Amino acid sequence: MRDKKKMQTIKVPGKNNKHKVLMYAISTCVWCKRAKKFLTENNIEYEYVDVDVCNREDRDKIREAILSRGGRLSYPTVIVDDRSLITGFNEGQLREVLEI
Amino acid sequence: MITLEKVRRRAESDAKSHGYFLNPDAESLKNLLEGLQKNEERYGYPSCPCRLASRKFEFDRDIICPCDYRDPDVQEYGYCYCALYVRKDVFEGKTSVLPIPERRPFQKQIRSYAASGEGVAEKPSEATTVVTEKPSKIILKMWYCKQCGYVCFREEPPYVCPICKAKREMFAEITIHSDNHK
Ligand code: SF4
Question: CATH second-level architecture of A10-98?
Answer without folding.
Answer: 3-Layer(aba) Sandwich (3.40)
